[in-house]
Design a protein that fits this description.
Number of helices: 1
Number of domains: 2
Oligomer: single chain
Largest sheet: 8 strands, antiparallel, barrel
Distance between the termini: 52 Å
CATH class of the largest domain: Mainly Beta
Radius of gyration: 20 Å
Shape: globular
Order of helices and strands: HEEEEEEEE
Helix content: 10-25%
Length: 137
């Protein structure tokens, strides 16, 4: 019985070591995590964005309304040089340009309505493996 228990112990150690190596490999794949914040009318928003080395992006935007309710939108898109395109599966789409720590562009809602949007880059966000913000305001 002791011998079986020691094999299980070593197996658990090996699995833990392999998971650690996988995390290190993922950290070195060139993926960047960024936090972008801004406001629109009486709402504020925070977006946690992961940018892969090939320019693909994914993440989540949290929109806090004046009454305190928070809506979450998952995002995907592409960064190409100083240009960014991001969309939500419902049909909302953002196209903009980076200038330093600012991104400015146009959000087209699924209804066709267009809104000017400006956001500022913040410190590196705390995000989970799906690039969702861990802590919100």
């Amino acid at each position: 019985m002791k011998r079986h228990a020691s094999h299980i112990f070593y197996l658990v150690l090996i699995v833990a070591f392999m998971q650690h190596l996988a995390l290190l490999a993922r950290a070195d794949d060139g993926e960047r995590r960024e936090l972008w914040t801004g406001s629109m009318y009486s709402s504020t928003y925070r977006a946690g964005i992961c940018i892969k080395s090939n320019g693909d992006i994914y993440g989540a935007l949290y929109l806090r309304q004046a009454g305190g309710a928070v809506d979450r939108y998952t995002l995907s898109g592409k960064v190409d040089g100083d240009r960014i395109t991001a969309r939500h599966h419902s049909g909302h789409e953002f196209k903009g340009r980076f200038t330093g720590d600012t991104v400015q562009g146009e959000l087209t809602l699924k209804s066709g309505r267009k809104l000017d949007v400006r956001a500022l880059r913040g410190p590196e966000p705390e995000v989970d493996e799906f690039c969702r913000l861990v802590r919100q305001q």
